[in-house]
């Protein structure tokens, strides 16, 4: 059981060191911090690891620069309001050169279903319609409806839905868009897809279209998120940051410091300090205390409310949230450096591989593949590529093993993935130059995420996004940001959460 930190020698509320302390430097935390620093707030980010970024971090081995996780990046467009990564960097005077990807995903699905999601919307719909000619009209009507959601989002400034002044303003500026969003907020993709599409195989494809970023099938995937993903890939497009995904966090930190904010690495917060029930500061694992008027946690909700705070103080709203949402699995990640000759001419950057529909959600069912060096060759030694593959995996399968058993199990799992990848990259085994495996334990250890989870997923079919909490919590002075908050996982989504959190905190601080 976590103990409550001792009452500080001076009442924190009278002498806070900072306006805001952000626990964690994931993209959600950094967007919050940079937005607040840009408004003039005194901000401190405390990061337990050596570099910023969390799941959007990187690591270097033998001349390869591997993305830890994310590499299919939304939010780097130049038009509209949903290009949140571009806007977050811009707010602190930063910019990243990006490389456009002409294809979001090349799917390799059961019964030889090979499909590409081209950046060009008509090309995508055309090829999907060729494969399911009887559903051509339904396909268009379904994806066009996703555009309706996106078009509503893409006209308004995306800030805190917990701030009444903003809600009134945005409603008067864009009444139809707001009504559109209210309509879609409680809806899931599956219900809308079934309105237009009857073919069971095509409905399975829609499930996979959702699963590959929401890790749940269409029936449980909120329509708001799908509207963003299924449309923005053809609008702002998928754009890879030159120098690797790690650049996003590095540049945000550079911008944070330029704006007067601070970040400390190797600074693991072990407790959130409460004074009369209010969050007033944090205690590091090393024992130091820092105080602020507002505390923002970028750790997952499980880490925040079960580890950083005493579990017996868990607010009823958090208990209710846990009844609705559960931890998604983690991933088994295989990072390969390979000889470039193994990739055929025209190979796409992102692939999804599944041999049996029934296994889509199972451990080691769906395999996700990213080859970022097809877009930015500087991430690997000359003549080589990075192939990052990952597949769902639960922590329970990696616990209670001796070191030898753990290593052997990792090796065996890597072999199984490589065998399957041979279907799309023949002779892969012979081309491997470097290999590293990460398990759920690795994700837990290096990303500080409970059980290494990818994030919250609904336990059952819920009313769209209505159940996802915003940034304020039931504990006064404490906010959450990142993928445990509205609107969920993905870099652009957590950037949205960061904008919203900073907005809410800024209003509460009187900015
Ligand atoms: C394998 C994989 C592939 C993915 N692929 C994509 C993709 O292609 N596209 C996409 O958009 N998204 C992708 N995602 C999802 C995306 O990376 C995440 O949703 C997003 O990065 C989460 O950001 P966050 O701000 O919520 O938190 P995190 O990235 O989890 O960052 C939280 C930070 O807080 C720190 N922290 C935690 N606890 C403490 C503490 N007590 N004290 C101090 N610091 C602490 C952690 O070290 C970490 O740096 C992928 C994720 C994974 C794992």
UniProtKB/TrEMBL annotation:
Catalytic activity: 7,7',9,9'-tetra-cis-lycopene = all-trans-lycopene
Cofactor: NADP(+); NAD(+); FAD
Gene3D superfamilies: FAD/NAD(P)-binding domain (3.50.50.60)
Keywords assigned by UniProt, alphabetized: Carotenoid biosynthesis, FAD, Flavoprotein, Isomerase, Membrane, NAD, NADP, Transit peptide
Keyword Chloroplast annotated: no
Molecular-function GO term, any one: isomerase activity
EC number of this enzyme: 5.2.1.13
Top EC class, one word: isomerase
Repeat found in the keyword field: no
Residue ranges constituting the Amine oxidase domain according to the UniProt record: 27-505
Pathway entry: Carotenoid biosynthesis; lycopene biosynthesis
Domain of life of the source: Bacteria
Family matches, as Pfam families: Amino_oxidase
Subcellular location: Membrane
Membrane topology, from the record: Peripheral membrane protein
Protein family according to the UniProt entry: Belongs to the carotenoid/retinoid oxidoreductase family. CrtISO subfamily.
UniProt-recorded name of the protein: prolycopene isomerase
Species annotation: Spirulina subsalsa FACHB-351
């Amino acid at each position: 059981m976590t103990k409550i930190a001792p009452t500080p020698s001076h009442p924190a509320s009278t002498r806070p060191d900072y306006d805001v302390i952000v626990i964690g430097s994931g993209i959600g935390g950094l967007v919050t911090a940079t937005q607040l620093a840009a408004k003039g707030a005194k901000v401190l980010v405390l990061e337990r690891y050596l570099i910023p970024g969390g799941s959007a971090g990187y690591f270097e081995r033998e001349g390869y620069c591997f993305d830890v996780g994310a590499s299919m990046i939304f939010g780097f467009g130049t038009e509209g309001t949903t290009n949140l990564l571009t806007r977050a960097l811009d707010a602190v005077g930063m910019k990243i050169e990006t490389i456009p990807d002409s294809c979001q995903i090349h799917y390799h699905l059961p019964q030889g279903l090979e499909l590409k999601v081209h950046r060009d919307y008509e090309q995508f719909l055309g090829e999907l319609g060729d494969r399911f000619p009887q559903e051509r009209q339904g396909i268009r009507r379904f994806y066009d409806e996703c555009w309706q959601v996106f078009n509503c989002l893409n006209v308004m400034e995306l800030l805190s839905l917990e701030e009444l002044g903003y809600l009134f303003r945005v409603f008067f500026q864009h009444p139809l868009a707001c009504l559109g969003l209210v309509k879609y907020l409680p809806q899931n993709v599956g219900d809308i897809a079934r309105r237009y599409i009857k073919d069971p195989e095509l409905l399975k494809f829609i499930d996979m279209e959702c699963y590959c970023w929401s890790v749940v099938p269409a029936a449980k995937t909120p329509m708001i998120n799908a509207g963003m993903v299924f449309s923005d890939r053809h609008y702002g497009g998928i754009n890879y940051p030159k120098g690797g995904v790690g650049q996003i966090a590095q540049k945000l930190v550079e911008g944070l410091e330029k704006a007067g904010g601070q970040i400390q690495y190797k600074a693991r917060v072990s407790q959130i300090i409460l004074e009369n029930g209010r969050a007033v500061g944090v205690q590091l694992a090393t024992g130091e205390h820092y105080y602020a008027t507002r505390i923002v946690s970028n750790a997952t909700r499980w880490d925040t409310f079960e580890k950083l705070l005493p579990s017996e103080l868990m607010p009823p709203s958090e208990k209710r949230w846990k009844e609705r949402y559960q931890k998604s699995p983690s991933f088994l990640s295989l990072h390969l450096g390979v000889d470039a000759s193994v990739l055929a001419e025209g190979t796409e950057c992102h692939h999804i591989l599944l041999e049996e529909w029934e296994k889509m959600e199972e451990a080691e069912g769906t395999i996700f593949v990213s080859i970022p060096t097809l877009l930015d060759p500087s991430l690997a030694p000359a003549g080589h590529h990075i192939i990052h593959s990952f597949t769902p995996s639960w922590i329970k399968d990696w616990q209670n093993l001796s070191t030898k058993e753990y290593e052997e199990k990792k090796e065996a799992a890597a072999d199984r993935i490589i065998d399957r990848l041979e279907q799309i990259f023949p002779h892969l085994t012979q081309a491997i130059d470097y290999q590293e495996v990460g398990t759920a334990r690795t994700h837990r250890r290096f990303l500080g995420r409970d059980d290494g989870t990818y994030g919250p997923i609904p336990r059952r079919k819920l009313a769209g996004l209505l159940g996802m909490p915003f940034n304020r919590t039931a504990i006064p002075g404490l906010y959450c940001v990142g993928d445990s908050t509205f609107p969920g996982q993905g870099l652009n989504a957590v950037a949205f959460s960061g904008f919203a959190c900073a907005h809410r905190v800024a209003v509460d601080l009187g900015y």
